[in-house]
């Protein structure tokens, strides 16, 4: 993780503004969805990317019936007779 030196306070509603420079570095536009992860006292923000419907993987995705499914799950379902391939 890289320190930016930028400090923000929560407003009265518990919100913070992610600075434009950070959003630009992340490749996030104003209306893009992001997801939050919490690890101890650290909150991480990542640009949302839908993962595999079954295992959550973000690698080797294709779309079947408008749902993202990774190659591994596609192959496993085909072996079990799920007929995705």
UniProtKB/TrEMBL annotation:
<dbReference type="InterPro" id="IPR037914">
    <property type="entry name" value="SpoVT-AbrB_sf"/>
</dbReference>
<keyword id="KW-0238">DNA-binding</keyword>
<dbReference type="Pfam" id="PF04014">
    <property type="entry name" value="MazE_antitoxin"/>
</dbReference>
<dbReference type="GO" id="GO:0003677">
    <property type="term" value="F:DNA binding"/>
</dbReference>
<feature type="domain" description="SpoVT-AbrB">
    <location>
        <begin position="5"/>
        <end position="50"/>
    </location>
</feature>
<dbReference type="InterPro" id="IPR052731">
    <property type="entry name" value="B_subtilis_Trans_State_Reg"/>
</dbReference>
<dbReference type="InterPro" id="IPR007159">
    <property type="entry name" value="SpoVT-AbrB_dom"/>
</dbReference>
<protein>
    <submittedName>
        <fullName>AbrB/MazE/SpoVT family DNA-binding domain-containing protein</fullName>
    </submittedName>
</protein>
